[in-house]
Amino acid sequence: MTGPPPDWGDDSTIGALAGAVHDATNSLTVLLGWLERAAKGDDVEAGRALERARDHALLVRQQMRQAIGAQPIEGTLTASRVSAPELLEDTYDDLQSEADQAGVELRTIGAETLSSHAAFEPNALTRVLTNILLNAIAVSPKGASITTYLSMGNDEIHVHVQDCGPGIPEERRADLFRAGVTTRHGGAGIG
């Protein structure tokens, strides 16, 4: 343990655990997509897919251990800094199976504006982008395009995702960022 054991009766501990489980569920979705690609791919694609699936399995283990206050395990995936274009390309690649299954296209506008010299820790940014894109995939009708508009300024990435979903009803917007509030069927209201 990295400190005192979590107080499981504390609302903030339960909220943190719920957030970790949500992130782990998204990582497992990506992992399953990579395993599906491995099963269908040639030897080169299968090897690459299995490597990415392993990375996501390690990430889930790390997220769950962190949520319960445990020390990281030797060999656990460590976050190395990656360029913004690399981070975006990896995230899109991670979600391609989900997009294919839903019959939607993932597009990017403005990737050329991202500096290949600006490096970011991938974990937090990837989790946010993965969550937004999985939500967009879930609400977009078959045949739709999900477009990510990107720009960069002062070592910040500006991301705008446009999907073809119904949007958030006006009467739900005030509560949208409260835990447990969702407008998506099957959603947990955590992401």
Overview of the structural elements:
It is globular, with a radius of gyration of 18 Å. Helices cover 48% and strands 13% of the residues. Strands 2-4-5 form a 3-stranded mixed beta sheet, with helices on one face. It has a two-stranded antiparallel ribbon with strand order 1-3. Strand 4 and strand 5 form a beta hairpin. With 191 residues, it is an alpha+beta fold. The protein has 4 helices and 5 strands.
List the helices and strands and how they pair.
Layout: H1 11-40, H2 43-67, E1 82-83, H3 84-102, E2 105-109, E3 119-120, H4 122-139, E4 145-153, E5 156-162
Parallel strand pairs: 2-4
Antiparallel strand pairs: 1-3, 4-5
Helix pairs in contact: 1-2, 1-3, 3-4
**Mean pLDDT score:** 76
Low-confidence stretches: none
What best-fitting shape do the alpha-carbon axes yield?
globular
Please give the order of strands in the largest beta sheet: 2-4-5
Provide a count of the helices.
4
Structural class designation: alpha+beta
Q: What does the radius of gyration come to?
A: 18 Å
* Through-space gap between termini: 26 Å
The count of β-strands is: 5
Largest sheet: 3 strands, mixed
Strand content: 5-15%
Helix content: 40-55%
- H-E string: HHEHEEHEE
